[in-house]
Design a protein that fits this description.
- With 476 residues, this protein is α/β, with parallel strands linked by helices.
- It folds into 3 domains: 6-55, no CATH class; 75-332, Aspartate Aminotransferase, domain 2, CATH 3.40.640.10; 343-458, Alpha-Beta Complex (Aspartate Aminotransferase, domain 1), CATH 3.90.1150.
- Helix content is 35%, strand content 15%.
- It has 12 helices and 15 strands.
- The chain has helices at residues 6-10, 41-52, 72-80, 93-109, 126-147, 165-173, 192-197, 221-235, 252-255, 323-360, 389-397, 428-446; strands at 16-17, 28-29, 119-123, 156-160, 177-181, 203-209, 241-244, 268-274, 286-290, 302-306, 309-313, 364-366, 375-380, 405-407, 416-421.
- The chain has a 7-stranded mixed beta sheet, with helices on both faces.
- β12 (364-366) and β13 (375-380) form a beta hairpin.
- α3 (72-80) packs antiparallel against α10 (323-360) and α4 packs parallel to α10 (323-360).
- The protein starts with 5 loop residues before the first helix and ends in a 30-residue tail after the last helix.
């Protein structure tokens, strides 16, 4: 997003007038230039604090998947580690050790055949982790093609159009043709048959999403892997799967243990997840794991010596805080398997109950019900023409609730929905308060003659459901 200076937007700029209640100097400070002199720390704090009151209440943000609540002990540890740079593994060896322990815990959680030798790392979030997974797929494909004496000029990546926007960025930044499977009818994500249709000798991999941002549904990872097994048997094409488990990677192991989606499938080469979503850590950490050393080409890995040992690293980012990694280890230690299961089950219970109650109101139809990710989407019934999902979103925002409304992508742009993400900290009590407010605004909306808001009013509020730029060409 290009940020314009306020002068360009409003035609003028004015300095910030400080309320005399501060009883301190200065009384005027510039908004868009460095002040000439320093000020008292309490004055600077109060200025910033007061402006931030205009932000929304993060706990009422039902658009974001990112954690908005953490225990005081986790926050204390993060404060204690705020100055630690995660990349300096030789200076902060114990933080690096905690990172390694988290990787091994995730490897066991995701059924790696040999968890001790799984390659993995922390990242700034699941988007960086996904890009690392994509880079490994591309480099692995390049090595194989060169060994065969074949061209490496036209790599492509197959995925559903419902993937998170980071995959479009990956394709653009790293010169890979994105092959999107569009939505069609009641099919809102990637299916095995459609994935295989787009694969060829230039396909570096298939991305399967465990928890679509559009509606919270799981893609059939095992079915996609089986279809690719069949493709290899018929054609010899050996195409790996990367599982984007940004949210589902920390839900399915605890609530859906019989669902086979992870390293139990030999075709799954790598998995990413977000520590700051259902990993239950405050924003700033993701994880990427590869099933073995063959899945992550050695020439992508940098080696750091710490404590006389070797620490392999793979990242797009360099300096970043170690606080979130420490908080992830704390949360793993604090909750354990049973604690995570209880937290995630509560989220799912809240989501399914809230979805059912919304369906009972009358004007709405469920697209999903929160029984996979604790996330669900719903629409206004087609026979209702007095208000739209965008009107509902705007009305709820009057009470502080941030519930995104958006249209689905290409081939289903006729479908406009609202989506609710239930996270740790969004209780049954808060869900009831949301329901009360929804009931309160419905009579007013039903008295309208026609919808008053459109998709343009919610354009910056889609949280991962942005339309993809479907490009038909290929990159050199």
């Amino acid at each position: 997003m290009t940020v314009r200076h306020p002068r360009e937007r409003h035609g003028h700029s004015r300095d910030l007038q400080i309320n005399p209640i501060f009883s301190r100097e200065p009384l005027t400070v510039p908004r868009y230039a460095l002040p000439e002199r320093q000020m008292e720390p309490d004055t600077a704090y109060q200025i910033v604090h007061d402006e931030l009151m205009l932000d929304g209440n993060a706990r009422q943000n039902l658009a974001t998947f990112v954690s908005t609540w953490a225990e005081p002990q986790a926050r204390r540890l993060m404060d204690e580690c705020a100055e630690k740079n995660m990349i300096d593994k030789d200076e902060y060896p114990q933080t690096a050790e905690l990172e390694s322990r988290c990787v091994h815990m995730l490897a066991r959680l995701w059924h790696a055949e040999d968890p001790r030798h799984v390659i993995g790392c922390s990242t700034t979030g699941s988007s960086e982790a996904a890009m690392l997974g994509g880079l490994a797929l591309k480099r692995r494909w390049q090595h194989r093609r060169r060994a065969e004496g074949a061209s490496t000029a036209r790599p492509n990546l197959v995925m559903g159009v419902n993937v998170q926007i980071c995959w479009e960025k990956f394709a653009d930044y790293f010169e890979v043709e994105p092959r999107y499977v569009p939505m069609e009818g009641d099919r809102y994500h990637l299916t095995p048959d459609k994935a295989v249709e787009l694969c060829d000798e230039n396909t570096i991999g298939v991305v399967a999403v465990l928890g679509s941002t559009f509606d919270g549904s799981y893609e059939p990872v095992a079915g996609i892997a089986a279809a690719l097994d069949d493709l290899q048997a018929r054609t010899g094409l050996d195409i790996p799967v990367h599982v984007d488990a940004a949210s589902g990677g920390m839900i399915a192991p605890f609530l859906d243990p019989d669902l086979v989606w992870d390293f139990r499938l030999p075709r799954v080469a790598s998995i990413n997840t977000s520590g700051h979503k259902y990993g239950l850590v405050m924003p700033g950490v993701g994880w990427a794991l590869w099933r073995d050393q063959d899945a992550l080409p050695e020439d992508l890995v940098f080696h750091v010596n710490y404590l006389g040992g070797d620490m392999p690293t793979f990242a797009l980012n360099f300096s970043r805080p170690g606080a979130q990694v420490v908080a992830q280890y704390y949360t793993f230690l604090r909750l354990g398997f049973e604690g995570y299961r209880r937290v995630q089950q509560t989220c799912r219970d809240v989501a399914t109950r809230l979805a059912a109650k919304i369906a009972e109101l009358g004007p709405f139809e469920l697209i999903t019900d929160g029984s996979e990710l604790p996330v669900f989407a719903f629409r206004v019934r087609q026979d209702i023409d007095r208000f739209s999902v965008f009107d509902v979103s705007a009305a709820l925002r009057e009470r502080g609730w941030l519930v995104p409304a958006y249209t689905f992508p290409e081939n289903r742009t006729d479908l406009a929905v609202l989506r609710i993400v239930v996270r740790n900290g969004f209780s049954h009590d808060l869900a009831d308060l949301l329901l009360d407010d929804l009931r309160r605004v419905l009579p007013r909306l039903e008295d309208q003659r026609a919808p008053r808001h459109s998709a343009a009013d919610c354009a910056g509020f889609s949280h991962g459901t942005e339309p993809k730029k479907v490009r038909r060409g290929v990159h050199a």
